[in-house]
Amino acid sequence: MAFDIEMIKGVYARMTERVDAAKSKVGKPLTLAEKILYNHLWDGNVKTAYQRGVDYVDFAPDRIACQDATAQMALLQFMQAGKDKVAVPTTVHCDHLIQARMGADKDLQNAINTSSEVFNFLGSVSNKYGIGFWKPGAGIIHQVVLENYAFPGGMMIGTDSHTVNAGGLGMIAIGVGGADAVDVMAGMPWELKFPKLIGVKLTGKLSGWTAPKDVILKVAGILTAKGGTGAIVEYFGEGAKSISATGKGTICNMGAEIGATTSTFGYDASIERYLRATDRHEVADEANKIASYLTGDAEVYANPEQYFDELIEINLSDLKPHLNGPFTPDLATEVGSMTEKAIKNGWPLKVDWGLIGSCTNSSYEDLSRAASIAKQAVDKGIVSKAEFGINPGSEQVRYTADRDGLLEIFENLNAKIFTNACGPCIGQWAREGADKEEKNTIIHSFNRNFSKRADGNPNTHAFVASPEMVAAVAISGRLDFNPMTDKLINQDGEEVFLDEPTGFELPPKGFDVKDPGFVAPMADGSGINIIVKSDSERLQLLTPFIPIGDNLKGAKLLIKAQGKCTTDHISMAGPWLRFRGHLDNISNNCLIGAVNAFGGATNKVKNQLTGEFGTVPDTARAYKAAGVYSIVVGDQNYGEGSSREHAAMEPRHLGAAAVIVKSFARIHETNLKKQGMLGLTFDNEADYDLIQEDDTFNFLDLNEFAPAKQLTLELVHADGSNNTIKLNHTYNAGQIEWYKEGSALNLIKKENA
Fold it and tell me: Of 162, 448, 652, 653, which is the active-site residue?
């Protein structure tokens, strides 16, 4: 069944006219990304050719998707917006609050028992405001979206950075903070700086041990964790057409790890096959009518260097399998080149766990190819040296894989089949012994491998690979195992090779499922009352933020974060997920993972009011109680990683007025703006070194806050000396209004009053 088919028909009905008008205005052929962007302008037909990386543009997304951890805060905000129903199709997916421990049945029931208050809240709010609700166990948001909602040429936003997975079906799908989603839910435009364009030309064809995952692992190694910032990555070429739709999704999904706004592929036969296999024949039929508008123009792909800001070429026939990591997803190593590198860096070669699944590698194709390796191990008498964990992407994938015997193959290797949920990928893994913090290595098909990410152990070295390579390496128990050249010893003492993986793009007998886990909302939810208990530890109604104002002087340094400071460092996931709907409680994790440049410790900063050292949250609360604003200082690519807006809301709640860094990750910068804070960058990055532990901050010209105008900051040091530095920002006039009103939500409420 195709959801929202009339909306999709409407997108397609206007596309030819709008794209043709854009071509005329721009005066050149268009990439796929440009076609979709110009077809989704808030004001309709294009009036000007927008400048990439410069112009802020208002868009009208087709739909919104929210996962349960971020949906709590997004819906708490939407409840304050004064609307009766969401303005565009919206869904909520319960996939984050399920801890992987014992196995699917026990873990799912435990999650329902412990988080029923949150699930009931999300279900009730969804029912009241016309939002589709996917129950716990239904699957991981991005796989469920790919199977049910994604469509070629569409535009969606989602409150999760891996929303970009839907690019596998030819969408522009972008991860945002909850406040952005609230804007669109409330019927307002969504603002985005018109992205730059990175083209990736794929030639040749994947074969053997090389998988779609290796494409993005290679790209991540080329572009690094911030090389895609402010850009859409568009894949094209004959090689792109040879990759399955779910393989395309894998590539787009991990594009979040290079900072890309999103990634996408043009409509082709593989996307059509997937649409039809997932019972969306009507979408495929409609897409076929305008197929040339659902991919880049032929002239673009013939001369890509003329149309993209950056061009990468990869021959899939020459591409080798990769392992990326540890501690960062862009540290790429070709399989076969690991031994020397691991020994040099002190990475443990023994592999303890192999984890297959997550939102990016949990399709039927992924499971079937990994299962072909697992079956070989069983058939050839090879005992797996590492433990296995499997996270199917959706109930539809799980049910079908179980029907076809794929899960049984893994179980024969003593694998744990976890719930159709995120699990270890987001820190929801109760790994036995992790609390001992022993140095160890795991390998997984997930995207992220930051320190403490999977199991909370800072000494777990996590490496990212394709599902089939995860299976092979885990079975061998060696990080430097190369299945293309290395033999294994079976139970009989025989040397055996693993054959190349095989699998199915789509299930030969079709998909099947008894209960996909979807709950449609009531036609009229006006009679539903949403009750949040005042003493709840999990949920808390929001109180509007008070504007910081233009007289910001006497602020104190909260922390000067040194080195990598991702959203995991600013607002940890794992055990803290249970507080995502309670701003005050979750604020107790604010910046506790950030490394203090003064002393090199985490969660230990100086309180300038007392001279004593304490935790970051406690120190921030002390400043707030004294009526003193605080300032956070950070390094490069600050806020990398998740879209979680809690990483912006928590400092704001605790009295931080500004975050000043060398550079921002895109989503986090926007989130800070939305919460009425100052997100600023050093004009001279070397000024970061001027910040001292006892500094007081005076903004000298905040009363002149204006687009493209630098701000001047006075640093007053403890010895009475001072420095005056310049700060840059990317606020436009509308965003400055957010600041003046105290938050974007405050402005929405004011306009709806």
Answer: 448
**Quick one: 397 and 255 in the same domain?**
no
Look at residues 487, 522, 541 and tell me which one is the last residue of a structural domain. Answer: 487
Task: Give yes or no for a contact between 244 and 212, defined as CB atoms under 8 angstroms apart.
Answer: yes
Torsion angle defined by CA atoms of residues 242, 247, 248 and 253, in that order, rounded to the nearest 10 degrees: -160
520 in a domain, yes or no? no
Do 374 and 475 fall into the same domain? Answer: yes
Final residue before a domain boundary, out of 315, 350, 377? 315
The verdict on residue 570 lying in a domain is yes
448 is catalytic: yes
Indicate the DSSP class of residue 84.
Answer: S
**96 part of the active site:** yes
Number of structural domains found in the chain: 3
Task: Give the mean pLDDT of the chain.
Answer: 96
Q: Please indicate whether residue 644 is annotated as part of the active site.
A: yes
**Same domain for 241 and 113:** yes
Catalytic residue among 96, 142, 322, 621: 96
For residue range 367-417, list pLDDT tens digits in order: 999 999 999 999 999 999 999 999 999 999 999 999 999 999 999 999 999
pLDDT over threshold 90, residue 177:
no
Annotation says 160 is catalytic: yes
Q: Are strands 332-334 and 262-265 parallel, antiparallel or unpaired?
A: unpaired
Marked catalytic residue, from 95, 352, 455, 568: 95
CA distance 483 to 373: 10
Does the pTM surpass 0.70? The reply is: yes
For 632, the enclosing helix (H) or strand (E) is strand 630-633
Domain containing 590 — which CATH number?
Answer: 3.20.19.10
Quote the pLDDT of residue 269: 98
Query: Nearest 5°: CA angle at 250, between 248 and 253?
Result: 110
Domain containing 339: what range? 325-487
Distance of CA 708 to the CA centre of its chain: 29
The confidence score (pLDDT) of residue 749 equals: 85
> Does the active-site annotation cover 285?
no
Of 281, 43, 38, 44, the residue nearest 151 (C-alpha)? 281
Please, what's the b/e burial string for 177-212 (b: 16 or more CB within 10 A of its CB; e: otherwise)?
A: bbbbbbbbbbebbbbbbbbbbbbbbbebebeebbbb
pLDDT tens, residue by residue, 260-271 = 999 999 999 999
Average pLDDT rounded to a whole number, residues 115-143: 97
Per-residue pLDDT tens digits for 271-297: 999 999 999 999 999 999 999 999 999
Kindly state whether residues 340 and 300 are assigned to the same domain.
no
Q: Angle at CA 390, nearest 5°, toward 168 and 401?
A: 70
Residue 355: which CATH number?
3.30.499.10
Question: Which of 363, 445, 642, 743 is the catalytic position?
Answer: 642
Read off the pLDDT of residues 202-255 as tens digits, 9 standing for 90 and up. 999 999 999 999 999 999 999 998 899 999 999 999 999 999 999 999 999 999
**Active-site entry in 68, 160, 480, 568:** 160
Q: Which residue has the higher pLDDT, 751 or 409?
A: 409
Residue 406: helix, strand or coil by DSSP? helix
Report the relative pairing of strands 678-682 and 722-728 from DSSP bridges: antiparallel
644, 653, 666, 729: which one is catalytic? Answer: 644
pLDDT tens-digit readout, 352-378 = 999 999 999 999 999 999 999 999 999
